[in-house]
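Can't paste images in this forum, so I'm doing it all in text. The chain is below; anyone willing to post the predicted structure tokens underneath?
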Amino acid sequence: MKLKRSLAVLMGLNLFQYGFGNASEIELDEAGNAMLAKDVAEKFQALTDENKQMKSCLSKVVKEGEGYDDAISRLSQNAEVGMKYRDELVEEVKSLAKLSEGSEELSAVLSKTIENAGIEDLIEFKSEFSRKAEELFPMKCTSCGAELERGSAMRGDDSSEKTEFNASEYEV
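Text version of the structure:
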């Protein structure tokens, strides 16, 4: 059986193992045929295993009945929304950091840390800087002076009586 160099290269075979040298084609003996059959079987098995892994990965992101193009479009849109959310979160954390630090500009190190943080860390930063900002600038009712919790229209006292939100009674 003859084996061409171009076919051996396409199959990813070791050319020197087959004795190609500078030749563009070689004649395989019985041992060469057995070695080729073994190498082709190994390559085929590797491709089969890789194919199974790819199908497993794709089955996790492609919904049933959805084509690959639709899945790619959906995932791209989700990624854009996620990136937008992250960018907005970065800006919010920077703003809260400035407020809690009492400065108009962040240090370069803190700014870079916030910009490079993952979403989980950004959420923790937001919580921490929000808590510090709340301590420095507590929210108070303009009519009675009672402390309020941010994000709620309820008075911060321990009364169990709930009151309706009246925006005209509060200032930020």
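The mean pLDDT is 87. Residues 83-136 form one domain.
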